[in-house]
Amino acid sequence: MHYEHFNCSLVYYVINFLINAAYQQDGYSQVIVMEEALAKIRPHTTSNLAHQKAPANLLQALESTFEEKHADRTPTAYFAALITTLDGSIQKKETSLGDGDVLPAELYLLALVAPFVPPPVIQTNLNTLLSLTAPLFPALMAHAPPMRSQLTLYNAVFRALDKSQLDVSAVRQSFASILQLCLDPRPKVRKKAADIVKDVLSFPPSPLIRHPYAQRVAEWAHIALQQASTGALPKSKSSGKGSDTSAAETAIHLLAFLRPVLPNLPLEAIPPITTTLLTLPRLGNPYLSQAAYSILSDLFTASTTTGTASAIEQIPAVLHAVLESPPAKADNSISPSWIRVLGDAMFAYHVADASACATELHRVWKTVWSYFETKNPQTRKAVAESLDLLTRCITSSLVKDSISDGEAGKSPLRSIISQTTKALDSLSFASAMQELLSVISALVSNLGVRVDPAKSTTATEALLMPLVSKIADLRVQKGFEHKEAADAVLSTAMRVVGPAVLLAAIPLNLEPSDRQAGKEPRAFLLPMLNQPHPSLLGHFVSYFVPMSERMFNLQQKADSEGRQSEAKVWSVLVTQIWSGFAGYCHAPSDIKTALSPAFSQLLSQLLYSQPDLRPPVLRGLKALIESNKTIASQVDTDMGESSGSDNVITPEQASENLTFLKTQVESWFAVFFNVFGSVDRDNRGMVGDVIGVWAGLAEKQDIAKAYRKVVDLFRQSFQQSDNGNTTTMMQDLLILLLPFLDTQDVAALFSTCLAQEVLCHKDNGVQKRGYKILAKLLEHGKVEEDALQTFQRLDELSVGLSPAAKKDRFILLSLLILRVPSESLHVIPSLIPEAVLGTKEPSEKARLAAFELIVAMGQKMSHGGIVKRSMVDGMDEDGTEAQASINEYMTMVAGGLAGASPHMISATVTAVSRLVFEFRESIDTQMQTEVFTTLLVFLSSANREIIKSTLGYIKLAIHTLPIELLRPHLKDLVPALLAWSHDHKNHFKAKVRHIFERMIRRFGWNDVYQAAGEDQAAKVLVNIKKRKERAKRKKAREDDDDEEEATKGKVPTGDAFEDVLYGSESELDDSDEDEQASRPTAGPKRKGVEQGVRLRVDDDEPMDLLQGVASRLTNAQANRRRKPGQDAGHFKTDTDTGKIVINEDEESDIEVSSRKAAKDVAGSAYRESMTSVDGFTRGPNGRIKFNKDTKKRRRENEDEDGDVEMADGAATTPKKHKQPAEPKFGHEFKAKKAGGDVKKGGVDPYAYVSLSQAAKKKGRNRTGIAGKHR
Fold first, then answer.
1. FRET label pair with 882: which of 795, 895, 1027, 1197, CA 20 to 30 Å apart?
2. Which residue has the higher pLDDT, 1135 or 451?
C-alpha cells in the first residue's frame, strides 16, 4: 500500500509543536498502555485481511517517519500525525470506506490513541478535529466498523472538553448525532453510542456536579418514550415484521439505554419520565412491561440509598397506577418485576412520609401476599423480597394500635400476623414454605422496637411469640424439611427478644426429668445463644450456670459407669452452653451485680482447669470490654434513631460499666498471665488478644505494675539454666504491653533488649522476639535512641545471629534507616551486603523483609543527603563525599556483581532487579542502560544460579523498561537467550520461551526474528510463533464450543514485583501436547419442569389437611423414596409359606465387598500411598509431593496388580456352569473344520445373509465372504 499523500515535513512540524506544548503531561504509564495496544497491530502488516493490514501499514509508515525525524513516540505525536494524515486523505477526497481503504484505518488508529492524549492537546485542536470528523457522520451511517471508531474517538473528545467548549455548535450537533445512534438497529453501534452518553454524563467538567448535557438527554429520552408509548406494540412474537415491530424494538432499545443513564439525569426530569414509564405496561408487550417496572424499582431504590427525593412526590400516583394493573398470577415474566415495584415504592414512601405510608401498608400487603400461591420460584422470591421491605414500613403507631387492640382485634398489623400464622398450616402455601419463613424472620426482626422506652418489652415479644412458638413446634416434628429456614427465624427471635424471653416460651427440655415427661428436646437452640441479644448477664448466671453444673455431674457419672457415648453427649451440651456466654457479654446492664466475686472465681477456675471451655470464656471477657467501649464512644457522635434503637444500654451506662471493670483489671491480669504461662505457644494467641483488650482499659499504674513484674521475671530467666520457654513467654507478654507503656519504661526496655544475652541467645525464639520488641518500639515512635549507635551495636551482635531471627532483624533495620540523618548515610553501604544476601534466604518472609530493607535504603538515598566515603568500611580515609541519589545507590548495590561467589552475584542481580522495578521512573536512562548491558554479560555465565537470576532480570526489563532503551540491544540479547533455549534444567527452556513471547508482543515478530541471526537459532522463534497461532486456534475452538465458560487467569499475588517476575506464565505451555479428553458433561437439564412439593403418605396415621400440613410436605420425588421392605425383594422366598430363604453357605455381595475393602485398607492402602506411582507424601510445611514415575515403580505396581487380580479371581469368583444354549438356526449346515459358511460368533450361515449387507460391515475384525478374518 502506498501513502503518497503522507506529507512528512508537515507531520514533523506539527509533532514538534504539540510535543513542546504538552509532552510533560504524557504520563509514563499511559505510554506503556498505548504501546501494548499498538504492539498488537504491528504484526498484521502481512495479514491476508485487508481491514487488519491497512492500520498496520499506516502505523508502520508513521513510526518510520518518527525514526527519521528522531521524534519520541508519545500519544501526542501519534495524534498529531494521524490528524495530518486524515486531513490529507479528505483533501484528496480519498473517503471510500472499504475494508482496505485509508480512511477507516486512520479512524481506527485515532480511536486507539485518543484516550491517551492529554486533554489540553484535544482542547487546542478541537476545531481542526471537528472540521475533519463531524462531516463524516452521514457517510459512516452505512459502515458500522468505522462508525464505532468514530464514536470511540468522540468519547475521548467529549471527556477532554471544558464547560465553554461544550457549548460550541459543532460539539452539540455531534452529540445530537450520537444520541440518535443510541436507537440504531445495529447492536454494536447502539451499545457504543449508549456507552458514550453514559460516560459523558458520568464525568462532568470541573467544577460542575452534573453535566450540561444531562437536561438535553432527559428531554430527548422523554420525547422518545412518549413516541414509543403511542404506538401499538405487538403482543406476541408471531406478528410479522413491520412498523409495529420496529416500534417495539425501538422502545426496548430506549429502555436499555435509559437504565444506566437515569442516575445522572437532573432530579426535575425524573417525574415526567416516571409518568411515561407507567404507560408502557398498558401496551401489552411483556418485555416492555418487565423493563419498565424494573427501571421504576431502580428509581425508588436510588432515591432511598442516595437520599434524593426525585421520585418521592409521585409515589402515591405510582402506587395507584401499579395496583390498578396487576398481571395475571400465571404470568411469570411480568409478575416478579411488578411485585418488586410495589416493595421498592413502599419503602421509598416510608422514608419520605412514614405516616402516609402506614395507611397504604395493609392494602399493598394483601395484594402482594396473593402471589404467594404461585408455583413459579422467581415470583415467590420477589414476593418474599417485597414483603421484607413492607415489614420495614411498620411504624410505632401501628404497633401500639395492635397491642391495644388485643389478640382478637382487627388492626392492620394483627391481620397481617393472623394471615401469616394461618399460612403455616395451609396447603395453598405449601410450595412457598421457604419464602414464608423468611418473611416471618423479617417480621420478627423489624418488630424488635421497644413499645415503651422505659421498659425492655419489644413488639416481637408482645405480638409474635405465639407464631415463634409454633415454628419451634414445627422444627421438632420428624417430617419437617425446612429446618434451616426455621432455625433462621428462631435465631432472629433469639437476637431480638433474648434467651430469657424465648426460653420461657420455648423450653430446652434437655435434662432427664424433661425427657421422662415426654417433652421433645430443643438442643438446636443452644448454638443460637452466641450472638448479641438484650438478655441480662444475670440470666446466664442463674439459669445456664446451674444447668451446666448438673450436666457436668451427669457427664462424670456416665463416664464412671462406662457409658462413653452418653458422657460425650453431656460434654457437648456443656460446651454449647458456655459457647453462648459471649452473647450475654455484649454490654449487659447488670454487669455490676452479675460479675460477682463468686462468678469471677468460677470463670477463673474454668480458665485454669477446662481447656475446652477456655475459648468461649475468653471470647466473653473480650466482648465485655469491646461492646461497652463501642457504645460509650457514641457520646460524641450523632445519636440518631438507628444507633439508639440497636443498643440495650445508653452511652452513660456503658461508661459506668467500664469504670466498674477498671477496678477488676488487676485481679484479671493475674489470671490472664497465669493462663498465658500454662498453655503452649500455639494456644497463646487468644489469651494474648484478651490481655491486649483489658490492657487498653487499665490505668497507667496497673500497666506499670504488671510491666515491672514481667520485666523482673524476664531478667531472672537469664540466670536459670533451662530458661528458653520462660524467657519467650515473658517476651510475648512484653509485646502485648508495649503499646501502653510510658516513655521511661520504653527506653529501659529498649536498652534491655539491645543486649548480648537477648540478641545472641542460644534459643532462636528469644532472638526473634528480641528483634521484634525493638522493631515494635521503633514503630510506635516512643524511642529517642541514636540510630548510628544502634546500628553499631547491632553490627557487633550480628556474630551470633540465628537464621530464624533474620526476618525480624531486617524489619528492625528498615525502621532504623528512616531515622538516619541525611548527613550520615555512610551506614548504608555497610548494610547492603547483608540485605542483598537476605534475598536468598530459604524463608519467604525473610526474603520479603530483605527486599523491603533494600527498597527502604533506596528511598532514603533518593531523598538526598551526603555519603561520607571516608567513613565507609574498606574505603580510603581521604575519600571524597558523594551526594546521595538513587543512581549512587544503584552503583553501591551493583558492586556486589564483582563478588567472589556465584551466590553473591546471583543475589546482587536479584536485588538490582527489584530496584529497577521499584525506581523505574527515578533512575535515569544512562544508568538503566549501564545496568542492562552489564547484566547482559552474565547470560554467558556457566553458573546456573547466576543465569536463573539474570533471566528474571531480563524478563522484568522487557516488561518494565521503555522500548527505545531496549531496542538497540536486541542483536545482543536475542542470541544470548537462544543459547539457553534448549536447556531443560531449572526450567530454563520455558523461561526463555516466555521471555521471547513478551519480546514479540512488545517489539514485533520481525524485529526479534531479524536479531536471531543463525538459521538454527531462528527455528526456536518460528516454533514459538507456530505454537502461539495454534494456541489461538485452540482457544477459538473452545470459545465456540462453550461461549459462557469464563477463562481462568492466574491469580495475582498482591505484590507487583512478584507478579512481573514470576507471574503470567506462558500461554503456550501445553499447546503442543495432545488435547486432554474432554470431561464428562452433565446431561441436558429439563427447563421449565419444576419438581413441586409432595405430600408424604403414612399408612399408619390418618392425614389432616387442615392442621399441621407443613410437617407432611416433601420436595423429594415419590418414586425415589426408599420403601420399607424394599431390600427383601432381593432374597428367595418359599413358594408354600412365603418366607425368605437365606442360604448360609452363600455370602452376600455386601459381605464380600466389605471384606475386600477391609483387607485392602488393612494390608496395602498405606503402603500403596507411599510407594505407588499415584501416591504422595507431605513435607514439613504441609505441601504435597507426588511420587516420581520411575520404571521400577511401574514394574512393581504391575506385578502387584497382577497378583491381586489372580488372587481375587481364584478366591472370590465362583465358576458359572453354562447351560447348553439352544441350537442356532441352520446349525446342521455348519462344517466341523471349515469356517467359511458360518460366522465365528455363532449366528446364521452366510447363505442367509445378503451380499450387500455383508459388504457394508466394516472394521478390523470383520469376517469376509470367504469366512476368513481380514
1. 795
2. 451
- Locate 128 and state its grid cell: 481542526
381-420 as b/e: b if 16+ CB within 10 A: bbbbbbbbbbbebbbeebbebbbeeeeeeebbbbebbeeb
1040 CB-near residues (< 8 Å, 6+ apart): none
For residue 411, what is its C-alpha cell?
Answer: 388492626
- B/e letters for 1178-1202, b = 16+ CB within 10 Å, e = fewer, are eeeeeeeeeeeeeeeeeeebeeeee
Q: Is residue 1126 predicted with pLDDT exceeding 80?
A: no
Q: At what angle do helices 827-838 and 886-894 cross, to 10 degrees?
A: 60
User: How far is residue 450's CA from residue 909's CA, in Å, rounded to a whole number?
Assistant: 69
Give the three cell numbers for residue 156: 475521548
The distance from CA 654 to its chain's CA centroid, rounded to whole angstroms, is 38
- Are residues 323 and 284 in contact, defined by beta-carbon separation less than 8 angstroms? no
Q: Look at residues 697, 798, 714 and name the one whose alpha carbon lies nearest to residue 756.
A: 798
Calculate mean pLDDT across residues 488-509: 94
The grid coordinates of residue 1187 equal: 511420587
Segment holding 1199, helix H or strand E: helix 1191-1212
Closest by CA to 231, choosing from 274, 183, 285, 286, is: 285
Please say whether the beta carbons of 523 and 517 come within 8 A: no
Indicate the burial class of 975 (C-beta count within 10 angstroms; 0-12, 13-18, 19 or more): middle
Paired with 450 in beta bridges are 458
pLDDT at position 964 is: 85
Pairing of β 1140-1141 and β 1132-1133: antiparallel
Residue 1140 has what DSSP assignment? E
**What is the reported pTM?**
0.71
* Beta-carbon contacts of residue 790 (< 8 Å; ≥ 6 apart): 754, 816
188 and 144 in contact (C-beta within 8 Å)?
Answer: yes
Cβ burial, residue 516 (10 Å; 0-12/13-18/19+): exposed
Exposure letters 1233-1254 (e unless 16+ CB within 10 A, then b): eeeeebeeeeeebbeeeeeeee
Contact assessment for residue 182 and residue 213, using Cβ atoms and an 8 Å cutoff: no
The answer to whether 197 and 182 have CB atoms below 8 angstroms apart is yes
Cβ proximity of 1168 and 1175 under 8 Å:
yes
Query: Which one of 92-96, 281-285, 717-721, 977-981 scores highest in mean pLDDT?
Result: 977-981
Residue 122 near residue 110, CB atoms below 8 Å = no
What are the grid coordinates assigned to 325, written together? 394493573
User: Comparing C-alpha atoms, which of 619, 618, 610, 621 is closest to residue 548?
Assistant: 610
The CA dihedral of 242, 243, 248, 250, to the nearest 10 degrees, is: 120
pLDDT attached to residue 1263: 44
Asked if 1116 and 1097 count as a contact pair (C-beta separation under 8 A), the reply is no
Instruction: Look at residue 233 in the predicted model and tell me its pLDDT.
Output: 38
Q: Is 891 exposed, middle or buried (0-12, 13-18, 19+ CB in 10 A)?
A: middle
Q: How far apart are CA 927 and CA 930, in angstroms?
A: 5
Which among 349, 350, 348, 390 is positioned nearest to 367, based on CA atoms?
Answer: 390
Q: How many residues does the chain have?
A: 1270
Which amino acid is located at 570 in the chain? W
Nearest Cα neighbor of 455 from 352, 380, 534, 348 is 534
H-helix or E-strand spanning residue 868 = strand 866-868
491 is written with which cell numbers?
435465631
The whole-angstrom separation of Cα 1239 and Cα 1262 is 10
- Biggest alpha carbon distance in the chain? 120
The C-alpha atoms of residue 1084 and residue 1233 are separated, in whole angstroms, by 53
Higher local confidence (pLDDT), 867 or 675: 675
**HSE-up (13 A, CA, CB side) for residue 981:** 22
Contact 231, 247 (CB under 8 A): yes
